[in-house]
Amino acid sequence: MLDDLRELYQEVILDHGKNPRNYGKPDEVSHRAGGHNPLCGDRIFVYLHVDAEGVVRNAAFDGRGCAISQASASLMTEIVSGKTLGQVDTLFRNFHEMCTSDGDVETDGSLADEMDRLQVLSGVRQYPIRVKCATLAWHTMNAALQGEAEATTE
Amino acid sequence: MSQAVAETTLDGANRSNLPAYDVDKVRADFPILSREVYGKPLVFLDSGASAKKPRAVIDAVSAVYEGEYANIHRGVHYLSVRATQLYDEAREKVRAYLNAAKIGEIVFTRNTTEAINLVASSFTGQRLREGDEILLTELEHHANIVPWQLAAGRAGAVVRASPVDDDGLVDLEKFEAMLTSRTKMVAFTHTSNVLGVVTPAKEMTRLAHEKGIPVLIDGAQSAVHLSVDVQDLDCDFFTFTGHKLYGPSGIGVLYGKSNHLEAMPPYQGGGDMIEYVTFEKTTFAKPPERFEAGTPHISGAIGLGAAIDYVNALGRDAVAAHEHGLLQYATARLSDMPGVRLFGAKGEKASIVSFLQDDVHPHDVGTILDQAGVAVRVGHHCAQPLMDRFGISGTVRASIGLYNTREEIDKLADSLHHVKEIFG
Fold first, then answer.
1. Per the residue annotation, which of B382, B383, B396, B409 is the catalytic one?
2. For the domain that residue A122 is a member of, what is the CATH number?
3. A16: which of B101, B114, B206, B337 lies 20 to 30 Å off by Cα?
4. Taking the domains of chain B in order of start, what are their residue ranges?
5. Number of structural domains, chain A?
């Protein structure tokens, strides 16, 4: 049983959950959105600074949530920094597919390293109720980029 | 309610007079309790969300459909008369369970939520004017907040919440001070679904009545664990639901004093709630039928009657004593665990322990317990204002039913060690 749980709560997740990176609202923000999971009442905010060339210069978040959602948000902010909006969109779709489908995810070869890092969150597939915890930050970032103020997992 | 609570929270001397409570025999009445999850025995500590059903209830519902089902209040034929009789008998069982004065004071609804909405709409909503107030407490479930906000919003009235202290206990002085000439309705829970704290409902009702303010008591949790006597409480309305009382889902109850129900307009229109209909005018049936438009949950009401019979046969005092013993045991075991922080562990309580472990999010605790076969509720429990009051996003809640055992409480406590193993 503990082995199954350790598959979900891998060291990377526990580390990012306890010490989230890029936590807090930065000074320079071009896109922002709030994300809400009505099931648990958790709420996060994602802040992005996208430059004129359409590259994410900085990504950050704050808010509260479980270990899975905090770790996912933390990893996401690290991974999307420096990416073009096109790459961010591909990562969003690939990550979502990784969390919700059983098969391997076809990915753009240039983003293979990033998807490898995100594999630590694929354990949520075995816990359908927790998928939303992992995807909340990504939905929120996507909402911010679409110009929407709010994302919800429902 | 203090008197009724005193009767159910028996001291050792009283408890020894009760017949022995054979929990193994009780568990054998609940088929689902013998199943496994993830290859482990199910430890079900989430009856506060919805309780499991005994064979007697399952059989009663099946028996209606297999042998006695027809629509009620309509046909002259044998089965319709028979189904109507069973439905009316179920209403009488509910009346007796609450010790209501009259059978016409018992309205069947879908659930507690619908019962509260009915009162908010057909009673309170009719009386509210701009600037009026509805007084709740900080303990309330969303079902006892949102209907009042809707009614208040339509009238330009305001919803206020009487504060609770750090243990979740209602501050009676502050409550009394918030009862003003603007207060047109008071509504509060009898037992907090988050903390298990029992409110001083009888005293709160008396204080409201001193100022002529009607009272609704949300009994969704209390009707399962306390011996409720609506005449002793003297509340104007009392609501509860069947599925937490080991009955079917989709059937709930509104008790209302007959003078109120007689004066209230219908909540919904349709068949079964009329006396006479023309296109110009309709005259409405008397309560309770006035508030039961359309074909009701016939088998659900009959199943609820069977659930009440089941609990009565076990003995409500015996059940309460068993649950209270487990609650005390659970509180003691969890209190002893390092890093566990209990919420609302003082005062009169019924069947619920709410806690956090270290700074681990309740959803993570819930997933880890689930893998051990232990089912608890985690999150805000549909009581976000109370979570805000405590400055937390949620808790882990173990709620105890009449079939739970000390071994299951041990399993809960032991499984919490896995949280430490994972999160350090």
1. B382
2. 3.90.1010.10
3. B337
4. 2-53+315-423, 58-312
5. 1
